[in-house]
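dumping these here so i dont lose them again. two proteins, back to back, each one seq then structure tokens. dont judge the mess
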Amino acid sequence: MAMEAGSIVEGKVTRITNFGAFVELEEGKVGLIHISEIADVYVNDVHDFISEGDTVQVKVVNIDGNKIALSLKQAKAKPPESEGQPFRQRRGDFRRPQQRQLSASFEDKLSKFLKDSDERLTDLKRKTDSKRGGRGSRRSD
């Protein structure tokens, strides 16, 4: 069976580097799982997710001559609730109640700010008005 992009194949991890992992596939071919294709979360160290000698199922992302790009995270099945639903719609549904709560607290914060600002302006006017008379107004003869 010929290997082609999009197919899921099994292989053995032969070497791990700081930028990914090399996997030996069928017929002695070797492909690379880039560090960005290891997991859905941020990967600081590849050793945290796979080890040398592990047998893994990977998806063939691209074949360019002798270079075979593989993905471990694309080979995993996605949760059924996320299929067929765009990301923005899922995120928007999740955040709507929180946004309503934030807008109410925003209005409270705004009214408090305006009240404090008026008080500060009044205090500033009182202090500057008493100083406007100049030096002559402070003398008591």
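---- next one ----
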Amino acid sequence: MRCSDLPKFWEYKHKDANTIMTIDKNCFASDNYAGICPEAWHAMNTANNGYAISYGDDAWTAKACAEIRDLFETDCEVFFVFNGTAANSLALASLCQSYHSIICPESAHVETDECGAAEFFSNGTKLLLVGAENGKVVLDEVEHTVKRRTDIHYPKPKAISLTQSTELGTVYTTAEIAAVGELARKLDLKVHMDGARFANAVAALGVTPKEITWQAGVDVLCFGGTKNGMAVSEAVIFFDRKLAAEFDYRCKQAGQLASKMRFLSAPWIGLLESGAWLKNATHANRAAAVLEKKLSAIPGVKLKFPREANAIFIEMPPEVCEKLRAAGWRFYTFIGAGGARFLCSWRTTDSEIDALVSDITRFSTP
């Protein structure tokens, strides 16, 4: 990478100070853009001492698995992979045969942003899309989709995939997940949860992780570490251990079995032992709440969905979007159901919020 390819920074004069503050205008594009949090960095550095057995047979990985079992208060099977696409697609492949189907909302990440990985790794399992309300699957549509065809010519529904928090920034409540779990048992479906922002959901609900996973009927969770402050690493957690049979072979075949596994697992120890996993998510959610309040006060700006975690979707005049981008702000407008998406992370600051709000306000003023 050349020096000219590095991120550009812009100067912003804070309204309450005479100092010039440096603002990286990439800061709200995605929580993926944030770097590694101190706890994860320290854990990786600590693990980088001497030698360790390869491919997950090391003490760091064993301890990380034990920490996750303690967190969820159950004897689950745990695997670590590099990214969320691999976590979701391999987990779903473990639930289904090629002639099965997976039910998910139209906005699900496995449908819109994973390049057909679920179908690829399951050798053709079909995604069946159903309607959703604010990103949450409509249960009547799930039941209709399962029951409308039962003949051999139709891909047999086998799993339902939820995203927690959703692609629209909303959060399934404990009761809503339990209702999904109950319907799944009734219809003989397995429940997969895409938890790329699972920590944000836990922080938003103020519940224990078990209450919105295995106790509510979730069979497998893909617990996101990257968006929570790690460099890489997602944990695939099978609460139904039988479903994890030969999952290690799936990981190997898919290029997801890390030789130096301790660098995927050690950061989990750092985040879980210190409580940073929840602290980081709580900070991101609170920052989003502050940003939501300030954006709501700007004429011409309209919130598209309830802000329940760390994502905010707004509608604003096209010319404001153009001016924001021309000023260097990076944000997405194709994710979810349209509108401009702004995401807060573990490291979002008040100064970054003020800078964004200041520019949107300025560009919205006739």
